[in-house]
Amino acid sequence: MSDKRLASAQSLDCAGRLIDLSFPHVMGVLNVTPDSFSDGGQFNASLDDALRRAEAMVAEGASFIDVGGESTRPGAVEVSVSEELDRVIPVVEALSQRVDAVISVDTSKAAVIEESVRAGAGLINDVRALQEPGALDAAAESSVPVCLMHMQGKPKDMQKAPQYERVIDEVLAFLQARIAACETAGIERSRIVVDPGFGFGKSPGHNLTLLNCLDEFQGLGLPILAGLSRKSLLGQITGRPVDQRLIASVAAATLAVYRGARIIRAHDVAATLDAVKVAQATIRETLDE
Ligand code: 7PJ
Q1: Domains (range + CATH), the chain
Q2: Which pTM value belongs to this model?
Q3: In the chain, which end has fewer C-beta atoms inside a 10 angstrom radius, N or C?
């Protein structure tokens, strides 16, 4: 098919697990920050909860589980390396042995990248696009793919006054520069995924332009990941609080896949996967199975 939306179909080798990108995948979100579990952060209960939650998301069809030990929500403060290691590594170790999915780690820190890959992670998802000290080399020395995300500013104040001349061009230029930096460091293009970073230093208008023009990112020739699940943009559009954004999240996921995203990062895996299948079937104008 000559459709431009299928031009970058390829596969990702995630520590031995092959992800076929000729169809879109869902990445389930697993936060392991202390406030994300009902016990208030007590270690064993957290680990158990994390495992159960991950297993449920895989049963719903998640191909990736994205483990995050640092909150990057607007206004969030940074955590120390040792704190992040303590939160993330036991979960990655347990999940990589017990869960039938690629374990992705949402981190920017070199030490967390190194230890996560050693513990069995199959993808590094960095909202800072490997710009922190040592992160590029740590990722290069591993053999797993990396997701490079665009962010303007830092989580602490990124939503205060986001500004762009032309948001698409600037996000594209940033990603191109980070792809070049990766290649120079020895990370081949076959290991790179890109993400415009919805909600990371962007106004509602910037986010909507990026979503509507997501297909322009296909010119990079790399798989596109999109994360819109429950984000404040959807609250601004619908007027709904974060716990009532499922339907808006599913609508946004559908649009993202229709515009070329291959991996959708989402909290609600089953619903998102159905949406992704509708978008994919529409792109192909046929059923895959
Ligand atoms: C994203 C992420 C995203 C990638 C978060 C939240 C904020 N990683 N980590 N893309 N968002 N690659 O889920 O609301 O959009 S944390």
Answers
A1: 4-288 (3.20.20.20)
A2: 0.94
A3: C
